From TrEMBL:
Protein name, as recorded: Pentapeptide repeat-containing protein
PANTHER family (alphabetical): BTB_POZ DOMAIN-CONTAINING PROTEIN KCTD9
InterPro entries xrefs: 5peptide_repeat, Pentapeptide-BTB/POZ_domain
Amino acid sequence: MDANEVLRQYAAGEKIFREANWRGISLAKANLSGVDLTGAHLSNADLSDSDLSDANLNWAELKGANLSRANLRGAKMLNGRMHNDRLESVNYFG
């Protein structure tokens, strides 16, 4: 699935992308508030400056993902695998 398809489906009201394969996808500056990415594969994805507030990232594979300046307020991240990720200025608390 490419970025345009993801954004089209999200705009149409789809928020459940469990176990989606978004490896290497570029969704910088995307509004994906409330998205369910449980178990999704997001390795090397560019999610910088994106709105992932209230997202479900439980069990998501985030190795190498760029989450710089992403809004993760209210996001669930139980057992998310985040090794060597770019997390500069992430808005997670508050």
